[in-house]
Specification:
Order of helices and strands: EHEEHHHEHEHHEHEHEHEHEHEHEHEHH
Number of domains: 2
Radius of gyration: 22 Å
Shape: globular
CATH topology of the largest domain: Rossmann fold
Mean pLDDT: 91
Distance between the termini: 10 Å
Length: 407
């Protein structure tokens, strides 16, 4: 059988972003397991790129397009730039009910032509589209109608119409938006999401089967990295923080108690985390400025090195417990590193994953955080090494389950 697959995503390496990683890792697994892999993506002005990705066996085409946001980059006044971006962000990327994904309209039109040419010339059998934004699904829907033989896999890295990221006004329009989403997916052969919580939610809404493809672990990426010895007890957090959803105050107040009351030498590293004013205010409030370091955005090898060299990795569950299943790729990176994880908050799937992989502890109070960090500080554990071949939560085994279904 000719195994060939076309990935459609507006975010893909060499772009350096968290959103690029999931699709890149699974595209690599398809390629390594006998599939011919094609990717249609795009460039976005101002994006960071990295040469650390292995793109040798992937046919990546960056489709030309005209981004209506481009003019914002040229605005020099930061306040005016922020205001205009917020106005544009309200109408263009998210609420695509009355103006379906206007930002990527030219990319969508050009990608439909490029994809049709590829399907006909390369004998492509499967198409894999990734949300967000909805444009990759919109193109795939048109391709599926045009080419009946195609097997269409529609992936959701986040929820669409009922996303936890939507503000109060946008949530008000969610039912209208969902009517559009449901019609968009009528011809999809396989619908994927990142967690069981999201799957149950989507199944209830869509009235159809939704399967889980975890972001998954890659233990081999960390096993080949030599741990760098650090003297101070170091807690590492990678990526953005979200003021409304992450309980930063609980974490900082706990660290303050550990340093002041317990007399511990602790250093906290935020890697690729913007210095938001609320973060700096919390650091000043708890007298932690000298104990916290912000490290600029790094390529993924350096991020893994910092994670592997940490004494503890910091994770936050979302405060909004009405949205179960927010399993980020970062959590699977942490599990892969085999460094103790401190997860703060409440989320059933996170707790189950951490327990299943014996990777750390989820804490809901200051007392629990202080006790767990103290225990780890004075009696550092050696976590059991896990392998891609044996662990059901590895990317490799997640891929095997997916491949079995779509073939």
């Amino acid at each position: 059988m000719n195994k060939s697959i076309l990935f459609l995503s507006v975010t893909f390496p060499p772009r350096l972003s968290v959103a690029s990683l999931r699709l890149y890792n699974y595209a690599k697994l398809f390629s390594e397991n006998g599939w011919k892999v094609h990717v249609l993506s795009c460039k976005q002005n101002g994006e960071a790129i990295s040469e650390s990705f292995d793109l040798a066996n992937l046919n990546i085409i960056q489709v030309e397009w005209k981004d209506p946001f481009d003019f914002i980059i040229k605005i020099k006044n930061p306040l005016i730039k922020k205001i205009i971006k917020k106005v544009f962000s309200f109408f263009i990327p998210y609420l695509s009910t009355w103006w379906p994904d206007r930002r990527f309209k030219t990319w969508r039109n050009n990608t439909l032509v490029a994809a049709s040419d590829l399907i006909e010339s390369a004998g492509i059998t499967h198409v894999y589209s990734s949300f967000s934004p909805p444009s990759p699904h919109m193109v795939s829907n048109q391709l599926k109608i045009k080419y009946k033989h195609l097997f269409w896999i529609a992936e959701f890295r986040d929820l669409m119409s009922f996303s936890h990221g939507l503000g109060a006004v946008k949530r008000y329009f969610s039912p209208i938006h969902f009517y559009y989403e449901r019609n968009l997916l009528k011809h999809a052969d396989e619908v994927l999401c990142v967690s069981q919580g999201h799957a149950l939610f989507m199944q209830n809404k869509l009235g159809r089967q939704v399967n889980v493809l975890l972001n998954g672990c890659d233990f081999s990426l960390y096993q080949e990295i030599e741990r760098k010895i650090v003297n101070d007890f170091t807690i590492v957090y990678t990526g953005n923080v979200y003021r409304k959803q992450n309980d930063m105050q609980l974490f900082f107040s706990s660290v303050y108690e550990l340093i002041i009351s317990k007399k511990m030498t602790i250093k906290v590293l935020f890697v690729g985390t913007p210095k938001h004013s609320f973060l700096l205010t919390q650091l000043k409030k708890y007298e932690l400025t000298e104990h916290v370091t912000f490290i600029p955005k790094q390529d993924h090898f350096n991020v893994r090195l910092l994670q592997k060299s940490a004494h503890m990795l910091l994770h936050f569950c979302w405060k909004n417990n009405t949205q179960e299943g927010n399993l980020t790729g970062k959590l699977f990176e942490y599990i892969s590193a085999r460094v103790p994880i401190l997860s703060i908050g409440e989320q059933v799937e996170v707790e189950e994953l951490i327990k299943f992989s014996t990777s750390g502890q989820i804490c809901k109070s200051k007392e629990e955080i202080v006790n767990y960090v103290t225990k780890t500080y004075f009696n550092y554990p050696q976590l059991t090494q896990l392998s891609n071949n044996d662990s059901p939560i590895s990317k490799l085994n997640q891929f095997r389950l997916l491949e079995k279904r779509i073939l």
